[in-house]
Amino acid sequence: MSSVTETPGTGLPMSRINPKAIVRWTILFIGGVLMVTPLLYMFSTSLKTPGQIYDLRLIPSAPTLANYMEVLREGDFMRWFINSSIVAVVVTASNLFFDSLVGYTLAKFKFRGRRFVFIAILSTLMIPTEMLVIPWYLMSAQFGWLDTYWGIMFPGMTTAFGTFLMKQFFETVPDDFLEAARIDGMNEFTIWWKIAMPLVTPALSALAIFTFLGNWTAFFWPLIVTTSKELYTLPIGLTSFAVEQAIRWEMIMTGAALATIPTLVIFLVLQRFIVRGVMLAGLKG
Amino acid sequence: MQKRILMAGISAAACITAATSASAVEIEYWQYIYDTRVEAMDQLIENFEEANPDITVKQVTFPYADYQTRIVAANMARKGPDVMQLFYGWADKFIEGNLIQPLPEDTFPAAQIEEEFFPIVSAMKRDGEYYGLPTAVRSLALFWNKDLFEEAGIDGPPETLDELVEYGKELAVKNDAGNFETVGLTLDMAGQDHQWWREVLVRQMGGVPYNDDYSQVTYDDDAAGAEALEFYTNLQTEHGIGAAGFMDEGQAAFRAGRAAMTIDGTFRLGSFNSIEDFEWGVAELPANEEGVQSNYASYFANAIGSSAEGEELEASIKFLEYISSDEAMQIWLEVVGELPARRDAAMTDANMNDPIYGPFLAALPYAHTTLFVDEAAQRQTAIDMANRVFLQGQSPADSVAEAAEQEQAIIDDARD
Amino acid sequence: MVHPTESDTIPTHPVQPAPRLSMRTRSAIWVWSFLAIPVLFYCVIRFYPTFNAFWLSLTDWDLMSDAEFIGFENYRRMFADPGFWQTFRNTFAYLIYGTPISLLIAFVVAYYLDRVRFAHNFLRALYFMPYITTAAAMAWVWRWFYQPPPTGLINSALGELGFGQIEFLGSTTNALPAIMVTAIWAGLGFQIIIFMAGLRAIPDTYYEAARIDGLGEWTILRKITLPLLKPTTVFLVVFISIAFLRIFDQVYNMTTNDPGGPLGSTKPLVLMIYQTAFSSYDMGYAAAQTVVLFTILLVVSLLQLWILRDRA
Fold this sequence. Notes:
B: D-Maltodextrin-Binding Protein, domain 2; 2 domains; 12-stranded mixed β-sheet; C: 2 domains; disordered N terminus
């Protein structure tokens, strides 16, 4: 496919060494390196001693893990890491379940009020989180949800975006499959769970990636609803840590690195998968 | 079988708790989480319970950011604490919201309070009644880097504003590119400088920042506010002693050994104590030419919750009496490092001669407390006021006038 | 959309009408048992708070005393507050500069990256990586980059090269663009991937036809690629616009010591809302500000729908 667009219109047969392509590649490469420069300097500084941080060299002259030791000893990064994991995993699981259940119902059943339910759910896409946080906060204060895992998680347990995405995908599932299962006497829940769900795994993984990433990096609501260190998620913990460190940059960079490493590792392992998921969700959503 | 034993155990335990609670009063004490504060309070409670075996005090703590909301929520549910700690600046809100009750005049006569405590406790007084008393207070001082002073050949910290400027100029070091290597004095309105400007510099220029009940901004009534701001901004623009934003925060620059002086509070001691690269000292804030001194002090007061009644109220009064005693204050100073709120407890020879606490304590008799209605918002007006001069070249007089207008609006909004 | 479900009922239709009805009922039971929890969720966690926010915006409430109905006083106060208009301008500055710049860079990179075969995945990874980082963490890295000398990386580098220092976060004019750059940087990876997906979705036959017609590269780009990419572009414009209108994480973390930058020069609407609600506890006023944000977002979203309809 890309061979078509490689040198369109030149009319010449493509040669192996195309100087234009080399220039193009080099520029793209430089751009790419610029993109990761902040990450590189973050890691580099996290390996430096306080005295070395004014040194601009990317490779520290005497790299040390002392900052990591100190941060892990003093901060609650492990705790925050666990909190973020719990929140992201539970919310993702909940979205996979409810978003696809509702998406499936809206795609595959004809019932009174279907259009109304669909429009109602879709309309919530227009309501910004920021508008809801004050009522959520008051609600949480009333029910004792402030500073609890449930308090962090409840607003995102199901989303209109996920529901819409799943509905789009379930619409491509042929009805014959479901009808056959119905004739076999399966109940509707089993049909959804056993027959329909496996047919939309690419969509499920895309939804999982988005939801997980979104919750892992979420800032605004966790900032409001969590108040004790034990309940902070990684981003909130990092912010409080950075403020407390009172501008000790090598320590802050270490904290930032610790907050970044988990997603970076996941990305490097699952790159193809993640990129495909983002493309899929972006195109359908 | 096992179940029955278990049941018996539970009912026995229930009997015991019932028995103890019948003969003893339990009161709840609330404060926010801060390791040393909680530790100090544990000690105080232990001492108090020993002297009053019929009273038990349960300490309940919440994270600082959550603290106000918790009190409000608990009060709505009528489960508020019997005794609680509150920032003096919240007093208006708490009184208006009926969260706390006035201290009984017979145990805490106003005249006696005013005689024995530093004058700043008056921030807890409304219509002749006191609503709370502090165990400890905080004030500001000048921190100075002894190593940098020695290098510059200066003997000791500045005692007057003129000396501050003079020393500052000598201590500031710039590199060839004209950028600061070291500043003479940190300029950081977002830190404690806004307090320094408000309660100290304005007064030293002959003005008064607010009227008596802090309902009216008065620093723009005469030239004092503008003169104070001009003095402050000149430190950067005229004298080149420092630059706002240098190292992001004043205390960070001082910590890193790149600031010869910084103005900060008692609460910074913990952080500065970990400095290993240089020696530092503490001095009283510089006086003006006529020797006028001022300072800003703040504190957390202990107050009695509005829901406390009957024997719980009795117990709460006793407990409050103890935690505002000389003994409690000395324990608080040793454990938390905050200054005693009573003159007798504070002005002991040992305390006054302490090279660290001495200068902070010396300031308490002449210190002022600003009755903030919204400290973050009011601080912002001061930050913006300085920035208008630094960044937009506005004249100090205009900038002060604008700040006064904004701050007055904040106060009016909160008070109506 | 109607077709698939219709086939459910067709087989039973010719036989007898009675079971068909019960079939429908049974199906309805399933439907509503599937929908029960989510519908409850949407009512309690989405719709009720929305109405609640509108109601709160008409009250004066500091959490301490009871909420007091004051009509449109909060709105009057907001529109009379120069601070509000400043955040309003700031918010739109993020949007108006940030969106086209993001879009342009993302498209150019995607357009060329799509043709690169050598180390394609590696290059793509470089561009994509910032997207999966945590904004709060990277804000601190950028904040360090932007520090004045002797701390900041950029200024130190400029100093080494003999240039004077540039004030970034401490300047009323440079602070907003400085923060915007970090937001653009963080979002590019996603946008590039989406553009690449859009480019790949264009059938090869179009290009082949164009080549046979002897069209030049620019013409192909203008006449074929860009028009066919319109749905992707519209999606991204809206997506990026909304992200800029809701910018918060970067600003909050990069200006913790003077929230919203010097003289409020970087403060977006969401930060103002946060401060009003959770620092000043002025809940009614904050709710009124959220209503304004809601209105802005609604207008942007409706514009999207309108443009999409135009296409169809």
